[in-house]
């Protein structure tokens, strides 16, 4: 079911949003260029970019290919959740939990996104499964396997360390013997040693997430609602087949990562729901065990309790269909590129304000064919940046002086970005003094405008 839902509409009309465009463009760089990039920015995604690079070396399949690892990651996570549920509460609870996971709209969204979050969720699930195996029968080999899985999980995204921290709470609740704690502690030493370089690089690149704002009231209420649902499901009497209970495993995974990130965000905003997507694995386990308990309490219902899954899919159908449209993401780079193509003529110049808006050109270069990027100093791929290095303000205005028509692509309603204020102010000052705005189009918060010398605007 996870594969079916993931493959359904995976192409999204070949549209991309900003972060996906970054993944696609970086994946097509050489390994040397990727290595240089992550030393400057996006170190947290280094392993993911290298995985994508290897995949695109085998087959360059565009946006659908970009999203395929996330589809497979979600399917693997669903399988892993089913295995954990089966181990902790029986086969029906496991099957229910595995079926519930891909029903959540957020899981469906990130199952079709060219970013690492679905793969992180799968890695969290399987590191948890290896933890349970090590607790059941501790051995050096099993703890080494757990340590390796936990390290890969954290290297895919360092915030996944919160899921590994949740494992410590699970062990506390299970009151495991000292030898289990010794094995877990040894595994954590290895994980921390392997993660240290990424943690240092991430701290040095902290400015990259400075744009994140404090969680809104709606965000906090939604997170609280998830926790409340999980808590209510945990109150339902459950089977327990070993030292670790299902609620003792699932509740920390659901509660701790959210609580920590939301708490930190009171001082320094760092919370985004996608950073803790793996919390849905904990919620799925709790909902699945509750469905199993319902089937056991009502013998006539039995396995029919699982009919709640297709019912939920039907009730969520409008949401599921909307998620598979270009309009479902925060921006639409294909729509932006098409708007540029509609306004531009060969020989026109193009300016991006801020630099990040250049993502539409990098993702859909065919729509910018024949245009001159007036601010770009050199090809983006070799610049060790995501958006390229721009010329000085004076050099930009000097180049603008040679053009009769210029297309601008800018974030609507915002002034110059703090990091490029001087360049963006110079661009706008030259446009205001030497050009007139002919027409504009808007696509998902991006304004695409045609400027021309006085008297050179096309007749309507």
Primary descriptors:
460 residues; alpha/beta; 2 domains; 20 helices; 5 strands; elongated
Furnish the topology, listing elements before pairings.
Blueprint: H1 2-7, H2 18-27, H3 31-38, H4 46-58, H5 62-89, H6 91-100, H7 105-111, H8 117-136, H9 140-156, H10 161-174, H11 178-204, H12 217-234, H13 246-265, H14 279-297, H15 308-315, H16 317-323, H17 333-343, E1 349-353, H18 359-363, E2 372-373, H19 393-400, E3 405-411, H20 421-434, E4 436-443, E5 446-452
Parallel strand pairs: 1-2, 1-3
Antiparallel strand pairs: 3-5, 4-5
Helix pairs in contact: 2-4, 3-4, 5-6, 5-7, 5-8, 5-14, 6-14, 8-9, 9-11, 10-13, 12-13, 12-14, 13-14, 19-20
How would you describe what is shown here?
Helices cover 59% and strands 6% of the residues. With 460 residues, it is α/β, with parallel strands linked by helices. It folds into 2 domains: 2-326, no CATH class; 333-452, no CATH class. Strand 4 and strand 5 form a beta hairpin. Helix 2 crosses helix 4 and helix 5 (62-89) packs parallel to helix 8 (117-136). It is elongated and about 80 Å long. This is Glycosyltransferase family 39 protein. It comes from Streptacidiphilus cavernicola. It holds the Pfam family PMT_2. It is an enzyme of class 2 (transferase).
Broad shape: elongated
Number of β-strand runs:
5
| Number of H- or I-type helical stretches | 20
SSE pattern, N- to C-terminal: HHHHHHHHHHHHHHHHHEHEHEHEE
Distance between the termini: 52 Å
Query: Could you give the order of strands across the largest sheet?
Result: 2-1-3-5-4
Give the C-alpha Rg.
Answer: 25 Å
| Helix and strand composition category | alpha/beta
Number of domain modules:
2
Summarize the main sheet. Answer: 5 strands, mixed
Q: In percent terms, what proportion of residues is strand?
A: 5-15%
| Unreliable parts | none
- Percent of residues in helical segments? 55-70%
GO molecular function: glycosyltransferase activity
Protein name: Glycosyltransferase family 39 protein
Keywords: Cell membrane, Glycosyltransferase, Membrane, Transferase, Transmembrane, Transmembrane helix
Pfam families: PMT_2 (PF13231)
């Amino acid at each position: 079911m996870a594969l079916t839902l993931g493959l359904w509409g995976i192409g999204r009309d070949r549209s991309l949003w900003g972060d996906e465009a970054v993944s696609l463009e970086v994946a097509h760089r050489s390994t040397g260029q990727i290595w240089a990039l992550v030393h400057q920015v996006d170190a947290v995604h280094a392993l993911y970019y290298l995985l994508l690079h290897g995949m695109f070396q085998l087959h360059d399949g565009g946006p659908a290919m970009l999203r395929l690892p996330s589809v497979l990651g979600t399917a693997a996570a669903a399988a892993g959740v089913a295995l954990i549920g089966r181990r902790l509460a029986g086969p029906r609870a496991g099957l229910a939990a595995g079926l519930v996971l891909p029903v959540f709209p957020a899981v469906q969204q990130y199952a079709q996104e060219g970013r690492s979050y679905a793969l992180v969720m799968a890695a969290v699930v399987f590191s948890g499964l290896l933890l349970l195996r090590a607790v059941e029968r501790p051995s050096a080999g099993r703890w080494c396997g757990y340590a390796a899985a936990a390290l890969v999980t954290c290297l895919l995204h360092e915030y996944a360390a919160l899921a590994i921290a949740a494992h410590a709470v699970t062990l506390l609740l299970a009151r495991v013997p000292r030898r289990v704690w010794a094995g877990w502690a040894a595994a954590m030493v290895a994980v921390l040693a392997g993660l240290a370089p990424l943690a240092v690089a991430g701290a040095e690149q902290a400015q990259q997430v400075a744009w994140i704002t404090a969680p809104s009231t709606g965000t906090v209420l939604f997170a609280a609602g998830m926790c409340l649902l999980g808590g209510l499901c945990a109150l339902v009497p459950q089977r327990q087949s070993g030292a670790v209970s299902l609620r003792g495993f699932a509740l920390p995974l659901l509660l701790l990562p959210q609580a920590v990130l939301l708490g930190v965000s009171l001082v320094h905003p760092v919370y985004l729901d996608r950073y803790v997507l793996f919390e849905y694995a904990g919620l799925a386990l709790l909902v699945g065990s509750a469905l199993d308990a319902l089937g056991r309490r009502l013998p006539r219902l039995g396995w029919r309790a699982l009919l709640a899954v297709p019912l939920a899919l039907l009730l969520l159908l409008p949401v599921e269909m909307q998620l598979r449209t270009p309009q479902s993401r925060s921006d639409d780079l294909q729509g932006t590129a098409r708007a540029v193509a509609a306004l531009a003529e060969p020989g026109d110049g193009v300016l991006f304000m801020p630099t990040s808006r250049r993502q539409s050109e990098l993702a859909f270069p065919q729509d910018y064919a024949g245009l001159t990027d007036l601010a770009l100093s050199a090809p983006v791929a070799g610049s060790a940046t995501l958006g390229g290095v721009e010329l000085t303000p004076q050099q930009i205005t000097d180049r603008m002086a040679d053009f009769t028509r210029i297309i601008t692509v800018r974030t609507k309603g915002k002034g110059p970005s703090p990091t490029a204020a001087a360049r963006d102010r110079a661009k706008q000052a030259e446009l205001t003094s030497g050009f007139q705005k002919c027409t504009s189009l808007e696509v998902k918060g991006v304004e695409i405008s045609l400027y021309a010398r006085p008297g050179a605007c096309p007749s309507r």
